[in-house]
Amino acid sequence: MSRALIIVDVQNDFCEGGSLAVAGGASVAAGISRLLAAEPDRWEHVVATKDYHVDPGAHFADVPDYADSWPRHCVVGTEGAQFHPELATDRVEAVFHKGEFAAAYSGFEGTTEGSEGLADWLRQRSVDRVEVVGIATDHCVRATALDAAREGFATTVLLDLTAGVDAGTTDAALAMLRDAGVALRGTPVVK
C-alpha cells in the first residue's frame, strides 16, 4: 500500500492578488514546494486539484454571499486558473479539474482530462493513505479531506500547509474533520 499527497487548489486566484484571494495562499504554495523538496520519498504519488470553471451557474454572483456564491474565479483559460508560481509541480502526476458547469468543492468531484476520478486513480495505484494540503482550509480542503475519509482512505490534513478564509468557518471545518476521523497536524494559516 502507498501514500499520496493531494494538493488542493493552489491557484493564482486563491492567492494574494487573485480575484478570491486567501491570506497566506502564496506562503502555503512555497511551503508545499519546500516540503516536496525536503521529503521526496514521503509520498509514492502526488496529485493536485484545480477549480476549473467554464459556466458554474449560481456559483458565480455579482453580489456574492461568500457561502454559496462567489466572485468570478479560476475561469478556464485565465491566469487565475493557473497554479501559483511558488508551487513546484514537477512531482504532480495528475490534475483533477472540478466545477466546470456547477459548484464543486471536493477534489473527489474532479476528473483528469481523460475523465478519471480521484478515488479510482488512487485505488488503481494501491494508495490507502492520503495527506491533504492547500486552499482553503474551510472550503475545498475540508470537502476533499471529508470525501477522502468517506472513500476509505486514512486521511491526514497538514494544516500548516493550508490557508483558511475565516477563523470561524475554519474552526467549524476542523471540528467536522475531527468528527469524521480525519487526523489533523499543525495549525492552519488564518488571517
Outline of this structure?
This protein has 191 residues and is an alpha/beta fold. Helices cover 25% and strands 23% of the residues.
What does this structure look like?
The protein is of the alpha/beta class and 191 residues long. The chain is built from four helices and seven strands, in the order βαββαβαβαββ. Strands 1, 2, 3, 4, 5, 6 and 7 form a seven-stranded parallel beta sheet that branches. α3 packs parallel to α4 (167-179). It is globular and about 45 Å long. The model has no long low-confidence stretch (mean pLDDT 96).
Give the SSE string: EHEEHEHEHEE
Count of β-strands? 7
SS-derived structural category: alpha/beta
Task: State the helical fraction.
Answer: 25-40%
Q: What is the CA-based Rg, rounded?
A: 15 Å
Binned strand content: 15-25%
Tally of individual helices = 4
**pLDDT averaged over residues:** 96
Low-confidence region ranges: none
The general outline is globular
- Largest sheet features: 7 strands, parallel
Amino- and carboxy-terminal Cα gap: 37 Å
